[in-house]
Amino acid sequence: MIYLDRIEELRKLMLNRGWDAVLFTGSDPHSSEYPAERWKQVRWLTGFTGECGDVVLTQDHAGLWTDTRYFIQANEQLEGTGVELHKMRVPEQVPIPQWLAENFSEEDEFVLAIDGYCVSAGFAAEIENAFLQKDSRCEIVSVPDLLSLLWTDRPQIPQTPIFTVNSGESRCDRLQRLRDFMAAKGCTSCLISALDEIAWLLNLRASDIEYNPLVISYLLVEEQHAYFYVLKGPIEDESTEAAFDELGADGIELRPYYEIEEALLHREGVLMIDSRVLNRHLYGIVTRSIVSDFVDCPSPVAAWKAIKNSVEIAGMRQSHFADGLAMTKFLYWIDKCMENERVISEWDAAVKLSSLRAEAAEYQGDSFETISAYGAGAALPHYVTPRSDAPVLKPRGLYLCDSGGQYYSESSFGGTTDITRTIALGPCTPLEMEDYTLVLKGHIGLAMAVFPLGTPGCRIDALARAPLWAKQRNFGHGTGHGVGWFLGVHEGPHDVRQNMNDVGLEPGMIVTDEPGIYREGQFGVRHENQLLCVDAGTNDFGKWCCFEVLTLCHFDTSPIVLELLTPAERDWLNAYNARVYSLLAPELPGPIADWLRLKTEAI
Fold it and tell me: Is 361 helix (H, G, I), strand (E, B) or coil?
């Protein structure tokens, strides 16, 4: 197997260099959740294609660390590679820092090699601290682009056209917010390396990373100047030229991408960094400086970005309207295919959905790879739909589709959508129907939540799990994540999950509501909408919040076990489906509108 050969070649390199272990993360130099092809090092080395996975290799062990979303997938893809799965987000988890310290703290000189571009300074510090707790020491050797020594056909850094967006707040105003924060921290400059934060600050977008409208770059902000480090060749398109002209007019100077290292070496004053995001290689340059100081603190940009302004909220509402039309047409198409016994595969369905989204003039592409899963495939929360020999949909059981779109037009609106619908393709088993209904109850429970302003998502997560827990069922992933405005489909710092995250929910934040049940080898159920946190009023007990549902797509009522729903849950579902029909039907072709009317009849 090719992966066995690659691992063996890497072990030979380790012996030659005197490394006891090597570490690769599934990220890039900017701590991105979704890296460009160049930085998919875990996939190249092991064959694992999940979005979350880190690898440690020693001379006698190869391990992949990933979370509950990918356990089944990892077991399948790692078979025959010699790579062992290490499970995260489970009670018995042993994270990489702890595992290394427990297995190698007795070594006199333990040397760990990393790709310093693709390991955050914060993660590297966790490893060093784990060894210190064992009264031992780990020497971390940073070798930028380490795998390039073996990966001979490694892709280059992508360069796609850049364009500007109207977010409702100018880049000058956003940069001033950052400068005010810097001044309060006693800093004269700030390095921003997270790509979504750069895109938000500068009102810039591109397509350097698939599904993510981001520009691979760094941003160095000083008291009076700002420098945009970006790897772009000679300007060959009008949008990039116009974007660069806008930046220049706002006092932002363009610099080559790799010159960020030289800039950090010769900086003066006090630099603000966020070591949770900054890669270890650049962090090493910052900390070695003898002519300037630095302050390490969480970037404020993530929190600012999470609270959408009125323009962004309006854009998200319009994006979900366009998305709802596409989803309704798609579900109608699926229904008619089953009714007419037309043979379609999971991949056919995914392609069809993208084509329907593309009918909107504002469509910029999908927001992530569509998960189109029938039967056993749906039991994998992050199932990868095969392009060839994909399973065929049959007129029975449950079909799950998790998808989303990126929308933007300067003349109209912009936004990012993420929706999951599970539907019945025909008769379902009693267990399928019961699970379907329990997950829907959990979804409705969170959607109906009313809570004090600033309540962390971890404190309302149980609302989505209570109906499942009552039947001793559960799901391993988080219940909800933040969503960007024409940015990443996943963003923080807030979320709704069991992990202790003290970031409170505030009006303007958007979070998904997506409980599920997954039965290995059988089927899976997930229902997902996007929720906007809104003001619910003030009384003697304080300020209150609730949720506005942004997503516009009906829930299939045919698999519901009616006696499991409370009157309040029925009322919520009937009102939601009725709203979907009233808003979407006028814009749908007659036959589809008639079909939707039947699908949204009250139960």
Answer: coil
Q: Using CA atoms, how far apart are residues 74 and 62, in angstroms rounded to an integer?
A: 13
Q: Are residues 564 and 534 in the same domain?
A: yes
Distance CA 550, CA 580 (A): 11
- The answer to whether 510 and 545 have CB atoms below 8 angstroms apart is no
**What are the pLDDT digits (tens) for 529-578?**
999 999 999 999 999 999 999 999 999 999 999 999 999 999 999 999 99
**pLDDT bucket at 308, cuts 50 / 70 / 90:** very high
Pairing of strands 110-114, 293-296: unpaired
| Residue linked to tokens 């100077």 | 253
The CA angle 445-496-481, to the nearest 5 degrees, is 115
195-218 CB burial, b ≥16 within 10 A, e <16: bbbbbbbbbbbbbbbebbbbbbbb
Mean of all residue pLDDT scores within the chain: 95
* Residue 237 backbone phi and psi in degrees, to 5: -140, 150
For strand 450-452 and strand 54-58, is the pairing parallel, antiparallel, or unpaired?
unpaired
| Distance in angstroms (rounded) separating the CA atoms of residues 505 and 447 | 14
CA distance 274 to 492: 15
Q: Residue 226: pLDDT above 70?
A: yes
List all residues 6 or more positions away from 218 whose beta carbon is below 8 Å from its beta carbon.
Answer: 191, 192, 193, 198, 228, 229, 257, 260
265 in Cβ contact with 258 (< 8 Å): no
With CA atoms as reference, report the closest residue to 195 among 84, 352, 347, 305: 305
Q: pTM here?
A: 0.94
Angstrom distance (rounded) from CA 494 to CA 547:
15
Q: Which of 182, 56, 33, 47 is nearest to 114 (CA)?
A: 56
Tokens representing residue 59 in the block: 């001379």
Based on the number of CB atoms within 10 Å of its own CB, is 177 exposed (0-12), middle (13-18) or buried (19 or more)? Answer: middle
Residue 159's φ and ψ, nearest 5 degrees, are: -135, 110
Q: Which two tokens stand for residue 128?
A: 């060093």
Q: Which domain range does residue 29 map to?
A: 2-149
C-alpha–C-alpha distance, residues 308 and 168, integer Å = 10
* CATH at residue 401: 3.90.230.10
Q: Which of 298, 315, 349 is the last residue of a domain?
A: 298
Residue type, 425: L
With bands split at pLDDT 50, 70 and 90, how would you rate the model's confidence at 237?
A: confident
Any bridge partners for residue 407, and if so which?
363, 415
Higher pLDDT, 581 or 411: 581
**Quick check: 331 pLDDT over 90?**
yes
Residues 6+ apart with CB under 8 A from 507: 307, 453, 533, 534, 535, 545
CATH of the domain at 22: 3.40.350.10
- List beta partners, residue 253: 227
CA 310 to each of CA 45, 168, 169, 455, 503: distance values in angstroms, whole numbers, following the listed order: 45, 8, 10, 22, 22
